Amino acid sequence: MAKKTKATVESKLRALYDLQLIDSRIDEIINLRGELPLEVEDLENEIAVLNTNSDKLKTEIEENKKEISEQKQIIENAKELLKKYEEKLKNVRNNREYNSIVKEQEYQDLESQLAEKKINELNARIEEKQEGLASVTERLDERNAHLKSKKSELDTILQETHKEEDLLQKKSAEFEKGIEEPLIMSYKRIRGNVRNGLAIVSVERGASGGSYFSIPPQVQLEIASRNKIITDEHSGRILVDSELAKEEQNKIQKLIGK
């Protein structure tokens, strides 16, 4: 049975740097989208609230119109009763009957007046709600147009980067599986702690990538020897020499077709 070859420090560094190159490209693609996904989500939430308000106002307007119809029916019923009472007055036999009919007429007059008052109040409410509905509808039209524009912008970016991002995500997962767990944990921890997501960088002009702090010549020699994993004392990033970095950059560019 063949003996399993133990990964060298250099192979670990190369694997980590390859993973970093892939993850950095994924970061670039995500950055291209910027705040667009959040903007789209916020607009969709705002539109949902506006639609709820619009539906509520429409329902209230319909209910008010229904109430107006009911009040108009009360007025019509009162008119019919008043006609009947007028006929009855022609045939009254005594004062008691007369007074009773007159009271009924007065009652129906009051009912009719009250119904008219309610109709006026309801019409005023409808007018107010229709103004509110017009304002909501105008806002909805404006927000929907804005959402359409933002979605179109986001869809264009997604279409342009979808295939590449899928490939990169698969490659990232593949490369991650080939690196021992403690190293991956360190890599992810450093990525989470630095602003640009660079957990492993090359030494350029005597300083670590993304840093203005110089690295002592002796430490640079140790990095170039690739015999142990060395981190930048200022940023905590893992360091590799520029030659290894260039070799892996060429390799990944060919792999992802960039």
How would you summarize the topology of this molecule?
Blueprint lengths: L8 H25 L2 H54 L5 H83 L3 H13 L6 E5 L2 E2 L8 H9 L4 E2 L6 E3 L1 H15 L2
Parallel strand pairs: 1-4
Antiparallel strand pairs: 1-2, 3-4
Helix pairs in contact: 1-3, 1-6, 2-3
**What's the β-strand tally?**
4
Proportion of beta-strand residues: under 5%
What is the count of helical runs? 6
Helix content: over 70%
Q: State the distance separating the first and last CA atoms.
A: 40 Å
**Mean pLDDT, all residues:** 91
The rough form would be described as: rod-shaped
Major sheet details: 4 strands, mixed
Helical/strand content category: mainly alpha
Written account of the structure:
By secondary structure, this protein is mainly α. It has 2 domains: 9-33 and 180-256, Helix Hairpins (Orthogonal Bundle), CATH 1.10.287.1490; 36-160. It is 77% helix and 5% strand. It contains 6 helices and 4 strands. It has helices at 9-33, 36-89, 95-177, 181-193, 217-225, 242-256; strands spanning 200-204, 207-208, 230-231, 238-240. The protein has a 4-stranded mixed β-sheet. A hairpin with a 2-residue loop joins strand 1 and strand 2 (207-208). Helix 1 (9-33) runs antiparallel to helix 3 (95-177), helix 1 (9-33) crosses helix 6 (242-256) and helix 2 runs antiparallel to helix 3 (95-177). The longest helix is centred in the middle third of the chain and has 83 residues, at 95-177. It is rod-shaped, with a radius of gyration of 40 Å.
